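Posting here for the record, re: 2'-deoxycytidine-5'-monophosphate.
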Amino acid sequence: MREKFIIAIDGPSGAGKSTASKLLSKRLGYIYVDTGALYRAIAWKVKENNIDSKDEAQLEDMCNKTDIKIRAVDSEQRVYVDGKDVNSYIRTPEIGMMSSKVSSVHCVRKRLLELQRQFGKEGGAVIEGRDIGTVVFPDAEVKFFLKASDEERGRRRYIELKGKGHNVSLEDTTEDIKKRDYNDSKRDIAPLCIAEDAIVIDSTGLDAEGVVKKMLNEISKKKAKAKTPHLNPLPIGERK
Ligand code: DC
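Prediction output follows.
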């Protein structure tokens, strides 16, 4: 077990992963990694370069030639594609849907898998996504799976998009996240699913503070367990 944990946070869109992960990383003094932003960055480049996302050879060539970096700025994550800060372009509903599509392609996942493992190799990281606890860091010390009702997820995403000035409706936004969840959980490679050893938290009706409180409680339990020495290693009959 690493001294500084890897905390995997998976779950569908709008379950509250980003807000909770950012807050949790601050409380723990850990780095925060939003892996969805990496898939969004690839989708943005696909769009910018008019790449046919169904043409795997073209996509693979693009992935191999793309430099993706992340940097923490004021506890926010910024993503750079070939040196360009793309943060303000990747949070649109269109890029969200495209990222869900490109994320089902093998070469994209392979390219981003290596990158994600680099970010977490030292431990001390809160990493959010869809397959962190199942594929990227199956040995993460603590795994959470965040869920919330469809209505609540739609409402949260709608408020977020409206706040950023997007002209969207609640109905379309809710439909969009349901479609994305369907794609993300039905794909062949690394689908969205609950890791066997994940702790499931339903964030419906909870604010980020409430979610993080539950998470910190679970993390403390894991830490205490890791510190407790095996008190009596002798078989029962030989104990004094
Ligand atoms: O978390 P997000 O909404 O920004 O993610 C955008 C898309 O990226 C999501 O619909 C599926 C994909 N994704 C993934 O396949 N695996 C991850 N670890 C993170 C995101």
